Amino acid sequence: MNIGYKIFILFTMIFCHIVDDYYLQGWLASAKQKSWWEKNSPGKLYKYDYLAALFMHSFSWSFMIMLPPTIVLMIIGGKWNPLLLVMNLLIHMLVDDMKANKKKINLIQDQITHMFQIAFTWGCLIGKL
Fold this sequence. Notes:
The protein is mostly helical. The chain has one domain. It has six helices and no strands. The protein has helices at 3-23, 28-31, 34-40, 49-76, 82-100, 107-127. 25% of the residues are buried. InterPro entries: Phage_phiKZ_Orf197. Keywords: Membrane, Transmembrane, Transmembrane helix.
C-alpha cells in the first residue's frame, strides 16, 4: 500500500478521534463524571452509573477510530483484530476516568494518551501493510 494512503488513514483516524471525543459525546461528557450523578441523582441506585457512561463513550470512540483502517482491511482482505477494539476501549475508559473523576491527569495528558492509542492501532492494522 502506498505510504500516502497509509498517512491519509492515520489522519482519518485522528479526525474520527476529534469528532467522537469532542462533538459526539454530548450528554456522556457530563454523565461519565461521578460528580454529575452525585448532584443530579444522588441515590445509591445511581452510584456507579457513571461507569456505564464511561463505557459507552469509550466503546463509541474505539469503534470510531478503528473504522477507517477496518474498512480498508475489509476491502483488501486484510486481517482485523478485535482485541484492539477491547484494548482501546479499556484504555480509553481508564484514561477518561483518571481525567474526569480521579483528577490525576489533565486534558493534554488525556489527548496525548489517545494519540498514542491511535498511532499504535494504526501501526498494528495499517503500518505493516
